[in-house]
Amino acid sequence: MKKKVFALLLCGLPLMINAQDSFDVLQMSQTELRGTSRFQSMAGAFGALGGDISVLTQNPGGIGVYRNSDLGITFSLDFNSTKAGVDKINETKFNVNNVGYIGVIRLDSESVPNLNFGFSYNRLQSFNRHYRGGVSNIATSMSNFIADEFVNVAGYSYKDLYWEEDFNPYFDGYAPWAAVTAFDMPTRTNGYVGIINANNSGMQGLYGQGTRGNAYYEVDERGHADEYNIAFGGNINNKVYFGLDFGILDLDYRSSQAYEEDLDDAYVMADDEDLLYSPIVNDNTRAEWGLYNYLHTEGTGVNFKLGLIWRPTQALRIGAAVHTPTYYDMRDTYMVEADLTAYQDGNLLYSATQASNDGYNYSSTYTMNTPWHFMGSVAGVIGTSGLLSLDYECVANETMRIGDDRRNNYPDVTESVKANFKPSHIIRLGGEYRVNPNWSLRAGYSIKTTQVEKGVDEYDYNIATVGTNPTYQYDNSVQNITCGLGYHYKSFYTDLAYVHKIRKSVYNAFSPINDKYGYEPNVSADVTDHNNRISLTLGMRF
Description:
Layout: H1 22-28, H2 37-41, E1 70-84, E2 87-106, E3 114-126, E4 129-135, H3 142-152, H4 177-183, E5 197-199, E6 202-204, E7 212-236, E8 240-264, E9 268-269, E10 280-281, E11 285-313, E12 316-323, E13 327-344, E14 347-355, E15 362-369, E16 372-382, E17 386-396, E18 401-403, H5 411-420, E19 424-434, E20 439-448, H6 454-457, E21 472-489, E22 492-508, E23 513-515, E24 518-520, E25 524-541
Antiparallel strand pairs: 1-2, 1-25, 2-3, 3-7, 4-7, 5-6, 7-8, 8-11, 9-10, 11-12, 11-13, 12-16, 13-14, 13-15, 15-18, 16-17, 17-19, 19-20, 20-21, 21-22, 22-25, 23-24
């Protein structure tokens, strides 16, 4: 079967057509280590330090540390390598990570010597990732999952899945679009043939006793999440530094996903005149089928950040910050296509293709809230030559929400978020050593723990997705190993950073089937990203 990549759609269920599912909001809510080169080279461990443009996205209390105005821009070159199974795909991408300005207003006051303001642009997340792979000797089929989880368990029948003169199953019914698309496939005989088929009182997939086969998948993601910051802060007695940040976010995400199976002795419909009522056969048969999805998500949002830094002594600094969720207004544009070619005894039985909504893109709108973030930091200044900084951040993933246009949360998604996710923890450690008044050396390390509950990672229960794509993915860990070099001469400075990012994720084509019908494992794969980034910052303080 010719390999195709169409895309991600998780918004088909008419009752929840304005929302994605819990794993989609998780993906859209992620941030990564970006910003100025100095910030990156110390792994972002600046929560108690301040004095860097990147703190506007981290601890805005750091804006109060400034004594002089600052203007800078950061460029980066990313070399990304993604491996799933034995397949590896390499990509290179150029970005402008950060542009910012900090202004200092000096006051004639000993208690409040200065008030500061700042503006910045930061790339918070790059969604760019492309991977593909295959799984041999699969133990079940995505078609079985669609038939069982989307139809049998939900109580739908074939009458809910196909067109009639006065019934459009995509908009007049309530069955998930994945089931409609997989079943409602007109052929040259004007009958119906499907990836799922009517069998007695229920629906059946292509995989059964004696079936053997392989699966293939490809995921191509593109896009970014950018933040524009407006911050205000100040200095109280050169002991307490405070800041408040207002963030405006722009999100653009595009995904193309393909999933295919080649099955021998598959359970397909016989080539009768009326295919809807044809018997199911699996004697020397073969089915080649695929599900192809497209998604384009656009969103704009706002958030607030509040931060403090306390300097009890010259050598010790303590920081704390809280980030509200980003409150997004979202819009999805999507389409799904399925195709099936069936053979028996080496002869073609039929071939069919079906696209949702008659092949036209469909759009929906909804709202989304990302997690709360809580941060604590401590830093030590070693004379005039060095510093060491440690940050801890808690990302409350269980607080994510999806709702309608009036921000009424969807209760099913809320329960799914609470059941599937737990807080992830980020540890950042960074250090700097000043070789002489002009040159500095830097290094750092950060790690982020898994976002999902143990039962998700060990496949103890089913994962509910919305609409046409049963696929879901999540990160188990993200690590950054960093180093850098800084040069300062009079008012001008330049910083260079190297970041090696290791991201370990899990791709699941569909949820394992674990209910009264028995347990069947899913098709899954480990995905590992190795990203090497070189960034350069140019700036001046005055």
